[in-house]
Amino acid sequence: MKRIGIIQTTALFLLLGTGFPVDARQEKQQEKAKPANPEKQAKQERQQQDKPAKPENQQQAKGQQDQERQQRDNSAKQQGQDNSGKQKEQARAQQDQQRQQRDQSAKQQGQDNSGKQKEQARAQQDQQRQQRDNAAKQEQQQAKTHQQEQRQQQDKSNKREQQIAKGQQDQQRQQQQRGQDHSSQRQEQARAQHDQQGQQRQQENNRSVQQPGRAQTRQQQVAWQDNRARSWKSEHRTWQQRGGYNGYRVPDDRFRSYYGQDHGFRIYSLPVEFIGGRQRFQYGGYWFGLVDPWPEYWSDDWYDSDDVYVDYYADGYYLYNRRYPGDRISISFYLN
Fold it and tell me: Alpha-carbon torsion 87, 89, 92, 97, what sign?
């Protein structure tokens, strides 16, 4: 607005400055048109009128006066027309200048308003963009915080479960350890007692084996034949088929010392008992008995002529015959 006021003031001064010289020129021309001394000229004209004049002179003077009057009228008229035209041109020029100033002012004001509107729109767009960016950042931060909280909760839950599981495992391990310790103690006691009883029984059986009677020998042969299978494949059952081994288990160290493929023997040299029609043999400090019948295609005296051994396979104890390595007879161990 200050700029517009300055422009209008400057234009007004320019118009006033242009008008003053024109008015001055007009006044000078009017002064030139006027007689140098109006009173003197009028006096001369009266004197001439008072003098008697000749008819020719009078006519000439009158024509000259008329001519002068006409010239003055024309001059005045022309001067008036010139002055009026100049004034109109000056007014038109002033109006054009004012109109141009208004147009320029309006144009400049419109440009200023348009620039301000563009700046305001740009500022509003920047503000909206910044708000969207802030909202997106806030959402990302919230999502990240939520994920971290979930991860922390999950880690705590996993740690708690691991601690509980570890505590249960430690408790089970301690219980198993105590059970193994007690079991080892009981097994050691039972082994010592069994060894002592076994030695006594071995001595008694050795005496009976060294001097067998004919009746006893005949009885053993009949018992062996009674345990012969008619169809071993259909009559034989593994410990898994029987529901698993539930008899006495020989300690590992003692089992490795007397049993396995490297420890073969023949049954005829061992103490033998027949209980309920089933045979029992004493070997390695333990008694073991046949649970299955022996295959019908084995030789009649395999228990006297074939080398056998005892081994653990998958789910229980079995008796193997080296002459028939593909067969295994289910057996069970006894302390007494």
Answer: negative
φ/ψ of 312, rounded to 5, equals -100, 130
Beta bridge partners of 308: 265, 321
Extract the runs of DSSP E, i.e. beta strands, from 58-164.
Answer: none
For residue 173, tell me if it sits in a domain. Answer: no
Separation of alpha carbons 93 and 305, rounded Å: 152
Indicate whether this model's pTM tops 0.70.
no
How many domains are there within the chain? 2
Label residue 286 exposed, middle or buried (CB < 10 Å: 0-12, 13-18, 19+).
buried
CA distance 149 to 104: 66
Are residues 332 and 256 in contact, defined by beta-carbon separation less than 8 angstroms? no
Does 154 fall in a domain? no
Looking at residue 211, the DSSP 8-state letter turns out to be S
CA–CA gap between residue 52 and residue 305 (Å, rounded): 208
CB 97 within 8 A of CB 11: yes
Residue-wise pLDDT for 13-54, tens only, equals 555 554 444 444 555 554 554 445 666 666 666 666 555 545
Show the domain range for 102. Answer: 2-133
pLDDT of residue 294: 92
- CA 141 to CA 15: how far, in whole Å? 70
Strand partners, 333: 288
